[in-house]
Amino acid sequence: MSDSGYVKPDESTVDKPLFYGSALVTGLIVVMLLLFPDGGKKLLSTLFSFCTDQLSWSYIWATIICFGIMLWLAFGKYKDVKFGGPDAKVEFKTFSWVAMFFCAGIGTALLAWASKEWHFYYTSPPFGVEAQSAAAAEWAAAYPVFHWGPLGWVIYSILAFPIGYAYWNRREGGLRFSTACSGVIGEKNTKGALGKLIDFLLIFGLFGANATTLGSGTPMLAAAISTALGIEHTFMIDVFVLAVWSVLFTTSVALGLKKGIKNLSNINLWAVFILCGIIFLVGPTAFLFNTFTDSVGIIFTNFFRMAFYTDPISRSMFPQWWTVFYWAWYWAYAPYMGVFIARVSRGRTFKETVTATLVGGSAGCSLFFMIFGNNALYQQLNGGFDFLAVTKASGADAAIIGALSVLPLFPLILGLFIFTGFVYSATTIDSSAYSMATVSSKDLSPGHEPSVFARIFWALVLAGVALAVMNIGSLGAVQTASLVAAFPILIFAAIAIWSFLKYLKADQPHLKQPSPEGAEIESFLVD
Predict the structure, then answer these.
(1) Over residues 392-407, mean pLDDT
(2) Distance CA 161, CA 154 (A)
(3) What contacts 190, CB < 8 A, 6 or more positions away?
(4) Distances in Å between the alpha carbon of 435 and those of 169, 230, 495?
(5) Which tens digit of pLDDT belongs to each residue from 278-300?
(6) Which of 20, 273, 355, 447 lies 20 to 30 Å from 192, alpha-carbon distance?
(7) Which domain CATH number covers 432?
(8) Angle, alpha carbons 380-384-388 (nearest 5°)
(9) Is residue 527 part of a domain?
(10) What span, in angstroms and rounded, lies between the C-alpha atoms of 115 and 141?
């Protein structure tokens, strides 16, 4: 460290109790689940059922309340407040900024679910609708857009405000979930055992959430590669997919935020536009557009019914298995996304951040469902490809590729699909590893990066856990364990938001005053 206090990004040290403690506890939980899969699955299933059924109202109300808070931040008296203070300059261009947080939150799981989610609703629709009817098809096209739309992005982005404000504006400490709670729990607890627990929840939640991403994406990409090469889909193909991913995201996260993650995210977004554009042009274009337009109308007409649906009388469990599950999955991701969005949003106003995440994020997800989901639905309804029969016989991964195989230019589409799939999950995992390294770093000053060792360590651990549980077949248990952690995350998220609102009220007379440390940080960011 120089006299000026400058620290090179790769010289930051890890918080050893949190760093090694998180790795050890998570490893022990995974080992226990692998050694005692039946007992572990039963316990986790009971806990998860309790959280998603008996506590379903809490996820629903929390999401709606946070939606209202974000709208208030975008259009209320604090809309022009910048992360970093009024003198803060934007660190990343808008395209790269949006690309990074979109790719950080949405991995290859979106490619998989955009292609297959509709068929679950088509065969088991909500609200007592007849299965595989015209009405079921309409709900099947609309519900995925709802689940991956503004309310989902509310959960993804709400914690960026308390975390980013505490880090950039208040200089409360490191870029951590626990730091965002300091206004309520106090500095002593933030740096003590309670703070370590809060940050551990972020790291543990990411393991299961990313296991879902890799678990959804790996078999799908392996099926695509098998089709392209004309070979049988085996576990070794899955291992190959994970190995390529490991090289991609380890290299990206080692290069850092600006040279690695930003560039890979930019490449990913352009690849997505090209892939979707080709399918849109050679596929059933009118059906894609018309069905998406109809879905938007259904969502607008039934938004509050869908948002508050718990079905306590007929007990179909549709909202628990889908909407509440999604909200819990997103809440498991929320602290990580809050850390990452906060890190890349210096110089952005609250209004810009709300608009970019809710509108940009929702629009990006909607594009996937309009293209991939509606194409698969069209092929099912019009006899181009029997998605349901192939799913039943060979699995959804084979059906996803099959729905694309009937399109013109399939070899080109398949090649782009494989490329996009690899890059997509790589951008999610490298962002996750970066955030885990950030949270587990000690005294990380604004603008500085966590150590290369910490970044690579977490990237490799994420890949290793995914490979281990896929081999044993206990992926679902790890996913469920992480989603069970979503409820305590929800509690601490409420504390973080409360702390944030207290800070805003206390700082209101000074919000337009330049930051005393702004010049030093700007110099670092420019360098």
Answers:
(1) 93
(2) 11
(3) 173, 178, 179, 181, 182
(4) 19, 39, 21
(5) 999 999 999 999 999 999 999 99
(6) 447
(7) 1.20.1740
(8) 35
(9) no
(10) 11
Q: How many whole angstroms from its chain centre is CA 252? A: 18
> Is 291 inside a domain boundary?
yes
**Beta partners for 441?**
14
Can you give the three-state secondary structure of 497-522, one letter per residue? Answer: HHHHHHHHHHHHHHCCCCCCCHHHHH
Is 91 a member of any domain? no
Buried b (16+ CB within 10 A) or exposed e, 439-467: bbbeebbbbbbbbbebbbbbbebbbebbb
Count the neighbouring beta carbons within 10 Å of the beta carbon of residue 396: 21
User: How many CB atoms within 10 Å of residue 317?
Assistant: 15
At 340 the pLDDT is 87
pLDDT of amino acid 349:
96
pLDDT at 467: 66
Contact between 184 and 389 under an 8 Å Cβ cutoff? The reply is no
- Kindly report whether the global pTM for this prediction surpasses the value 0.70: yes
Position 163 scores a pLDDT of: 94
pLDDT at 468: 64
User: Given pLDDT bands bounded at 50, 70 and 90, which one contains residue 515?
Assistant: low
| 433 domain residue, yes or no | yes
Over range 412-419, report the average pLDDT. 91
The two three-digit tokens of residue 110, written as one number: 């979106």
Residue in 105, 106, 103, 119 with CA at minimum distance from that of residue 400: 119
* Residue 2 to residue 54: CA distance in whole angstroms: 55
**C-alpha distances in angstroms, 322 versus 34, 147, 475, 483?**
26, 8, 18, 13
Q: What is the CA radius of gyration of the chain?
A: 22
Q: For 257, how many CA atoms within 13 A lie in the half-sphere containing its CB?
A: 24
Compute the distance between CA of residue 428 and CA of residue 484 in angstroms, rounded to an integer.
Answer: 21
Residue 521 has pLDDT above 50, yes or no: no
Mean pLDDT of 356-382: 96
Scanning 3-133, the segments in alpha helix (DSSP H) are 16-35, 37-49, 56-75, 94-105, 108-123
Concatenate the DSSP letters of all residues of 463-490 into one string: HHHHHHHHHHT-HHHHHHHHHHTHHHHH
pLDDT of 459 reads: 77
pLDDT in tens, 98-136: 988 887 777 677 888 999 999 999 999 999 999 999 999
* Token pair in block for residue 443: 């005294």
- Is there a contact between 139 and 125 (Cβ–Cβ < 8 Å)? yes
Closest alpha carbon to 461 in 39, 19, 143? 19
Q: Are 179 and 166 in contact (CB under 8 A)?
A: yes
Residue 302: pLDDT band with limits 50, 70, 90: very high
Q: Which two tokens stand for residue 519?
A: 């010049």
As for how many domains the chain has, the answer is 1
Range of the domain at 351: 9-75+102-510
CA 481, CA 433: separation in Å to the nearest integer? 19
Model pLDDT, residue 523? 42
What is the sign of the dihedral through the CA atoms of 309, 311, 317 and 318?
A: negative
User: Over the chain, what is the mean pLDDT?
Assistant: 84
Question: Which position has the token pair 């991609």?
Answer: 248
